[in-house]
């Protein structure tokens, strides 16, 4: 069942924190145990960072899955262009892949 909220003639949805019709989107990253990396868990909508942390904790750590949360506003995330991945992640630097080094016999299995 869908319920439409009635509006006065000419009324529009409210603009909350620069987002028409609702709260801004925040990305949630969780670290499962100490020493591990933070991993993207999902997203929440919240009015501010404090509310986003609270919502993320309620939604994504109900069973004590994490020891740390990172909350980042979606508009603040910047990424590299996948089409330019060769420039960023190309293998023109052979020292990044030490396959040509000779290991001494004392090292054993490596």
Description of the molecule:
The chain has two helices and five strands, in the order ββββαβα. With 110 residues, the chain is of the alpha+beta class. The chain has a domain at 22-76: Roll (Ubiquitin-like (UB roll)), CATH 3.10.20.520. The protein has a three-stranded antiparallel beta sheet. A hairpin with a 2-residue loop joins β1 and β2. The longest helix has 12 residues, at 49-60.
Poorly predicted ranges: none
- Tally of alpha and pi helices: 2
Name of the level-1 CATH class of the domain at 22-76: Alpha Beta
Beta-strand fraction estimate: 15-25%
> Span between N and C termini?
62 Å
Strand order of the largest sheet: 4-3-5
Do you know the CATH architecture of the domain at 22-76? Roll
Oligomer: single chain
Structural class: alpha+beta
